[in-house]
Amino acid sequence: MKTDNLILNEFLDDAFNLKSHLMEFLSIKKCDLDDFLRDARTKLANSHPGDSLGNISDFYTDIVGDRHLADLAAWHITSKDYISDTLKLQQKFSRDLVLDFGGGIGTHALANAMSKKVKHVFFVDINQTNRKFVEFRAKKLGVEKKLTFCKTIKDTHISKFDTVICLDVLEHLADPSSQIDVFHEIMDYNSISLLNWYFYKGEKNEYPFHIDDIQIVESFFNTLQSKFIEVFHPILITTRAYRKIKQLY
Ligand SMILES: C[S@@+](CC[C@H](N)C(=O)[O-])C[C@H]1O[C@@H](n2cnc3c(N)ncnc32)[C@H](O)[C@@H]1O
Question: Which of 73, 96, 112, 149 is the most exposed place for a label (fewest CB within 10 A)?
Fold first, then answer.
């Protein structure tokens, strides 16, 4: 098992060997990788069908393909300081059974699997390409025994998690409030969840796939604030730690 500092340094060095994992997984050369990563956010945004999309999750299951891999990889490579702060936050709170909901390219799940405080990580993502890629990365990094890959939380067959990670996902869901209800059900009173959100489509519609409906957002905050209390940490202002509110009766 690695120390927290070593895990952070390995992320800061090469994002856990991300570029080499991408080249091998996608069977592409270095020059093609640069093309794959270039303008990844715009390519992802351009693939969004706008209002004609019936079911929001179809975007992630049927439309994005490997474009989300490109978008997330480009982001994690160019925003290392921000992502490493989220890893520091995990190092403070993660323990035992961890759920990483909407785990993307796996940075957080892989870092948790490397931690000695964590027994097992359940990586849940609706996108099959992401699941396959992170499974491939886990084998490359030698942590595959500490990870299980599922499409939904139900598929994990775990009734209570000690840690719930949900970073940059809530704004991608049709009903983020009901996702908070699900997290409430699968947490004990001493469990912690790490959550952030960005309910904004961007100044120039850079994020057409983000939810920004005022009523949906208000319902999300009502549920969050009625069921959870924030646990202060000094690490990263945009990402919050929560535990369940204990009923007083
Ligand atoms: C912006 S990415 C965030 C990835 C990762 N958490 C991170 O911080 O880099 C959003 C992720 O949520 C996943 N996702 C979207 N809808 C989902 C759903 N209903 N259930 C599970 N995962 C979902 C997407 O496939 C994508 O990997």
Answer: 96
